[in-house]
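[Meeting: bench + compute handoff]

Bench side (C.D.) handed over the final construct sequence. Compute side (W.E.) agreed to return the predicted structure before the next meeting so the bench team could plan truncations. Sequence as handed over:
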Amino acid sequence: MVMMTGSLAVRGTVVWLTPQQGGRVSGPPEPDYDYDYTATAYLPPRTADDGQAGIALREFAPGAWRTPAEGILVPAKGHRAQQVIPGCIVVITEGTRPVGLLTVEEVHALAPDGSRVVPAAVDVPPAEVATTTDPPYRHSTAASRWASKHASDDQLANL
């Protein structure tokens, strides 16, 4: 998890909205190998009015409505920090009009010189790891699947 107080490098999947959905009339942007696609963005529950950030995308397929992409998020001056974690959605806007959705799969903080900030390793004593029984929190049903018991679990235990 990273708090967006400075620029972040993100990688994920972008889905461009169709003109019928209110997206770009010209369809998905065509990547230019000399320039990145730049626009504005926000992370819900914020809106274009109170959580605007800049976004630059590259490495996406030309003309594809859904494609992997990588980019940089830059918070607007004066906006509060926002959590950016794998699985969150970034709404890509042109002005205040949503034109695409980026599902974040990977996120890294960037140093002022543009290099990735590598977090320090955290040492967890083995006793704490062994006593932790709570499943990790997820924004999906993954936590319930992680913690649920199935009849096949008993068969595996007897092997």
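W.E. noted at the follow-up: Confidence is low (pLDDT under 50) at residues 134-153. C.D. will use this when planning the next construct.
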